[in-house]
Sequence to fold (232 residues):
Amino acid sequence: MPESFSESLQRLSAKISYQFSDITLLETAMRHSSWTAENDGYESNERLEFLGDSLIGFVVADVMYRRYPDFDEGKLTDLRKIVVNSTALSRVAIDLGVGEFVLLGRGEEAGGGRTKTSILANALEAVFGAVYLDSDSQHAYEVAARLLNDSIDEALAALKKLDAKSQLQELAARLERPMPEYRVTNEGPDHAKIFFADVFLGEEMLGSGSGRSKKAAEEQAAQQACAILLTS
Fold:
C-alpha cells in the first residue's frame, strides 16, 4: 500500500466532516475484496459494510419516524426503500468522491469499478461502519443522518410523485375541496382476497379501484380521482 494512502484519506475524512482517531479503520473501509485478493494480509471492507448497512437502516428509519409523524408503516417503509438502496447510496458516495479512494484489484480497476453502483454503495456503508467503530453510536448516528439528509428529502419528493393518495390530498387542499375519504370492501378467501376502494370528496365519489391489497386499491382509486380533478 502506498505510504501516502493514509494521508490522502484525510481529504475523505474532511469531506464527511469527521476526524478519525484511528485512520486505519477508514483504510479498511476503502479496501474492496478484489484488492485484498491480490494483496495478502489485509482485511477487506465487507465486515465494515455489514455494520454500516445496519447503521444506515436504523438511522434512516429513526429520522423518518420522527420527521414524519403522520406517515403510517407502509409509507415509512416505501420512503426508506427509496433511500436505503445501492443506487441512492452510490449517489451519496459520488457526491463525497468516495470512488477516488477505493482500492481495487486490477480486474475491477480495468472494468471501471470506481464508478460501479454496488462498489460505491458498499464503500459508503463501510465508511459509516468505520465511523461507528472509531467513535460511538451517537456520533455515527449524527454523521449518517447529516450525510443522508438530502437523500431523505429527495425521497419524500419522489414518494409524493409516486403516491397518488398524497397527490390527491394536496390537490383537494389546493382546490379547497373536502379531504379524501376511502371506503374499502373486500371479497374472497384469505389467500386470494380482492379489495375494492371508492374515494369520496365530501359526498362526491371521484374514483374506484381494486387490487390484492387495501393499499393497491386505494392508490388506484386516488389515481382516478386525481385525473378527474385535473381535467374538470
In short: The CA atoms of residues 83 and 110 lie 29 Å apart.
